[in-house]
Write a structure and sequence with these properties.
Layout lengths: L1 H17 L1 E8 L3 H14 L3 E8 L1 H9 L6 E3 L4 H8 L8 E6 L1 E5 L19 E4 L5 H12 L3 H4 L3 E4 L2 H9 L5 E5 H4 L9 E4 L8 E7 L8 H9 L5 H6 L8
Parallel strand pairs: 1-2, 1-3, 6-7, 6-8
Antiparallel strand pairs: 3-10, 4-10, 5-8, 5-9
Length: 249
């Protein structure tokens, strides 16, 4: 009996050791959609495990350039992955995997009038991700400046380190408004809370989001496989569920 138990333990241990762990650095706007895709991928690939670290694209880029052990980087724009490639840290080409959308979100304020809402006297604080490291924050600031509104409301802005933190400021009510990724507004926990407004593409183009394999990922075939997987038709319904625009195949 002891031999059987030991044999089963040994087999389980070997199975655990043989499982490949893929380390992914991902922009904060991907938190919910990527967790869902991860579960789907791991169910289809039992020998693979995906470990995801979320943050601002700028912060993650700096970590990669400083030698962090990531194998795949999924950013919220194309510039940060290109920076990785230009600095010699890429193991492949920069690949566009999805198009994201910016939204205006509020827990209590009616946002149906879009940008007009930011000038309301009742709006004291507006959450935006730091544009230096967060592409969605950069998009929000650019939109406000193009519409000649930035200088009028700049004193209301509270800056989040990334789009996830900016969204949390709005979700908690600490800011009356938040410029957030549409994907966060469509997260399961938020569907019955608050209101959101999607900006027309004419004034706020979708954010082209790109990824890149990191040097050293050649040793782990799961890196290229996962990047290919997230752009496959198998994942299209998940991306659409969270408001993303698909890349033409």
């Amino acid at each position: 009996m002891k031999r059987i138990i030991l044999s089963l333990f040994f087999i389980a241990a070997i199975g655990t050791l043989s499982a490949q762990t893929l380390k992914v650095a991902a922009a904060a706007n991907l938190r919910y959609v990527l967790e869902e895709i991860k579960k789907q991928y791991e169910a289809e690939n039992p020998a693979s495990k995906v470990e995801i670290t979320f943050g601002s694209s700028g912060t993650l880029t700096q970590q990669i350039l400083n030698g962090a052990g990531f194998e795949l980087f999924l950013a919220a724009d194309t510039d940060f992955p290109k920076k990785i490639a230009e600095d010699g840290f890429a193991a492949g080409e920069v690949t566009t995997y999805i198009y994201g959308k910016l939204a205006l979100w509020s827990l209590t304020t009616d946002v149906s009038n879009g940008l007009e809402t930011v000038t309301l006297p009742s709006v004291k604080k507006i959450a935006i991700a730091n544009p230096k490291g967060a592409p969605y924050g950069e998009s929000a600031v650019e939109l406000l400046k193009n519409q000649k509104l930035y200088d009028k409301i700049s004193d209301k802005i509270v800056w989040g380190e990334n789009i996830g933190q900016a969204a949390q400021f709005a979700f908690s009510g600490n800011a009356e408004l938040g410029f957030i990724a549409l994907s966060l507004a469509l997260a399961p926990d938020m569907q019955d809370k608050g209101k959101y407004y999607i900006f027309p593409e004419e004034i706020c183009p979708p954010l082209e989001q790109a990824g890149v394999l990191i040097k050293g990922s050649e040793k782990n075939p799961a890196a290229a496989k996962f990047l290919q997987y997230i752009t496959s038709s198998q994942c299209d319904p998940v991306w659409i569920k969270y408001g993303y625009g698909l890349v033409k195949k």
